[in-house]
Structure formats: C-alpha cells, structure tokens
Amino acid sequence: MASHDSHTGRLSSLFASPDTSSFTEFLGAYSPDLLPGGRTPPASPVGDEIPHGTTIVAVTFPGGVVMAGDRRATAGNVIAQRDIEKVFRADEFSAIAIAGTAGIGIEMMRLFQVELEHYEKREGRTLSVEGKANRLATMVRQNLGMAMQGLAVVPLFAGYDEERDAGRIFSYDPAGGRYEERDFHSIGSGSVFARGALKKLFRRDLSAEDAALVCVQALYDAADDDSATGGPDLPRRIFPVVASVTSDGYRRLGEDEVGALARSVVEGRYDSPGGPTAPLR
C-alpha cells in the first residue's frame, strides 16, 4: 500500500482534494484492500468456527425507536463470547446493529460510523435517514463475495426522522437489498421467535420505556427457543444492550436500567413461562 509519494514523502493527492463525500468511495480508490469486502474471499466456504452474532430487535414508538441485541456470540455449538456488543451508535440520530460474522460486522459498523462523520464534515450537514440507509446498503453489497463464502453480515439500521418526528427501521439482505420495515423488526438466528413476540406485544402508543420492555421480552423469547441467542445472565450481570433514538439523539440505556427490565422479565416468567399474553380482542 502506497500511503505517500516515495520520492517526495508527501501524501497522495487524494488526501488533498478528495472528489467524493463518501469515505468508503475514497478508501476504495486509495486502498481498496482495507474495505471489509475488498479482501480476497476464501477459496472455499468457511465452517462454523468463526464467531457469529445473533439476535437483534427494533421497535418504534411515537417520536422514536428502540433497538436491542442479545450478548451471545457462537461458533458452531460453542459459546464463543457471552458479552459481545452488537448495537452501536451510528451517529447522533441513528443506531446500527449487526448479525452474522462478528469480526466483519464490527469492522463494517466502524466504517459506517466514519462514513457518516466524513459526510457531515465534508458537506456541513448530516445525511437524511434514507441517505444513511442507502450508504449502508452499498457497504453490505460490497461484502457479497465474502457472504457467498459463508462470511455474511446482515445489519439492522434505525434512525430518527426529523421531518416525520418518527423512528424508522431498515433491514438488509446479504446482497445489499434495503427494505424499510413498519413498526418493528428482528434479524439473526432467533429472529423468527423474537418477531412472533413483537407481533403480539407491539402497540402504536408504546412509551419509550415500554418499547424497551417489549424488546427485552422478545429477546427472552428468542433465547427460549434459539440456542444461539443468549438470555439475561443475572449471576454475571450480563444484560442485553438497549438503545433509543429520539429527537434528543442516541441514548444507550444504563446497566441499572436494563438490569431492572431484565429482572422484571425473568421474575414474570416464573408465573408465566410463555411470557405476557396479548388480548384476544
């Protein structure tokens, strides 16, 4: 990688006058091998030995959105890590979470954070929520070669839309397809079970606190039926990562807040192992 002119010792002219407000495009022109999808895919599909992140959920409420993720990473039938974090601040008014190959997912998340900050500094304004979602779709698409060899990363993106005064959720497929979801969504190995819980518990008038509780309930249901999803670990004080995005910006709930939610869910399951029931009518 040539980071500077070997004769003058100066940085490449790309640094002095970049032609794009996209950091990903700039990096692709300068040193494409540094992009997550810019590396040569393995010759054959990888096995289960590489850690994978699992279940993520997101729920909208009036004026915002809550996103939460369990803390387990698995490598085949082995728990690779009990306290991995999969939900992150993308910028002041958005959040990103990853499921799939953990190492590549975290790298993609960090690159996305730089992408948004680079655009803001270059243009003097932030991207719209849809603009951010589109930039992330491009990054996912660039990882297609790795995904076809078993190193797929599927993110979930959520942000606050100032014009609508509402939270919005976007999901993706490994080929970079971008889809806006209504009300709630879940990705990862336990998503089928989590989505079933979300479907029964969601209401359009949820408060931010109730939306967080719904997320924790859904993650518990996912862990109840999916061995790759970790439930609240009370003895080790390992709880889901829960974050909200509103007009006040991104806020990660403190450990005491999430711990209280997790304990209330676990205690409630002693009386109702299947969780809260939705009204029939």
UniProtKB/TrEMBL annotation:
<comment type="subunit">
    <text>The 20S proteasome core is composed of 14 alpha and 14 beta subunits that assemble into four stacked heptameric rings, resulting in a barrel-shaped structure. The two inner rings, each composed of seven catalytic beta subunits, are sandwiched by two outer rings, each composed of seven alpha subunits. The catalytic chamber with the active sites is on the inside of the barrel. Has a gated structure, the ends of the cylinder being occluded by the N-termini of the alpha-subunits. Is capped by the proteasome-associated ATPase, ARC.</text>
</comment>
<comment type="pathway">
    <text>Protein degradation; proteasomal Pup-dependent pathway.</text>
</comment>
<dbReference type="InterPro" id="IPR023333">
    <property type="entry name" value="Proteasome_suB-type"/>
</dbReference>
<keyword id="KW-0888">Threonine protease</keyword>
<comment type="function">
    <text>Component of the proteasome core, a large protease complex with broad specificity involved in protein degradation.</text>
</comment>
<keyword id="KW-0865">Zymogen</keyword>
<dbReference type="InterPro" id="IPR001353">
    <property type="entry name" value="Proteasome_sua/b"/>
</dbReference>
<dbReference type="InterPro" id="IPR029055">
    <property type="entry name" value="Ntn_hydrolases_N"/>
</dbReference>
<keyword id="KW-0647">Proteasome</keyword>
<feature type="propeptide" description="Removed in mature form; by autocatalysis">
    <location>
        <begin position="1"/>
        <end position="53"/>
    </location>
</feature>
<keyword id="KW-0963">Cytoplasm</keyword>
<keyword id="KW-0378">Hydrolase</keyword>
<comment type="similarity">
    <text>Belongs to the peptidase T1B family.</text>
</comment>
<dbReference type="InterPro" id="IPR022483">
    <property type="entry name" value="PSB_actinobac"/>
</dbReference>
<dbReference type="InterPro" id="IPR000243">
    <property type="entry name" value="Pept_T1A_subB"/>
</dbReference>
<keyword id="KW-0645">Protease</keyword>
<protein>
    <recommendedName>
        <fullName>Proteasome subunit beta</fullName>
        <ecNumber>3.4.25.1</ecNumber>
    </recommendedName>
</protein>
<dbReference type="GO" id="GO:0000502">
    <property type="term" value="C:proteasome complex"/>
</dbReference>
<feature type="active site" description="Nucleophile">
    <location>
        <position position="54"/>
    </location>
</feature>
<keyword id="KW-0068">Autocatalytic cleavage</keyword>
<dbReference type="Pfam" id="PF00227">
    <property type="entry name" value="Proteasome"/>
</dbReference>
<dbReference type="GO" id="GO:0016787">
    <property type="term" value="F:hydrolase activity"/>
</dbReference>
